[in-house]
Known about the structure:
5 helices; two-stranded antiparallel ribbon; globular
Amino acid sequence: MSDLLGFEGYLNTSTPFSVKEHKVRYKTSRQYLDFSPGNTYNETCTYPRFYNETGYPVGEDVTSQLKGCYDSEYDQFGDIEAFGVFPDWQRQLAKFASVQDRLREWVPSVLEKIQHHSCIMIQMLDIDGFRFDKATQVTVDAQGAFGDYIRNCAARVGKDNFFMPGEITGGNSMGSIYIGRG
């Protein structure tokens, strides 16, 4: 993703993280064509499973905060600095370093689009793998579903050893969820 979306009231500055999210708008006339932002707030929202730095699910102190969300295909929770200490669940919802719009890969319809576009790339460009920068910013369940879908897509065109490495910047406990324990 690029950096086409800005949070209302924070177009030229960092946006504080908020579990209530922020309204969003395009910064210029340039827009995404395959995914849409939204500013209608839903009082209830089905969030994915989140884990803390110990590798265990976050507690009710976190889940009780996550109730509603905007009807968007993008996360609109604000920014997280590139360097600093933030809970992993916040990193999975925030715009990284204020420069990368984040899709809600944890919403099934959004994940389906990501999978479909990725499969087209494999089939049309004959690539042999994807590298995941900041892999743990993708929620665990979405990453697992994506990996399964992509390996099946690649196998359909004879790629039985499709390579999908990823950068794990968290500790061993958090990383273990992504590479075998989760």
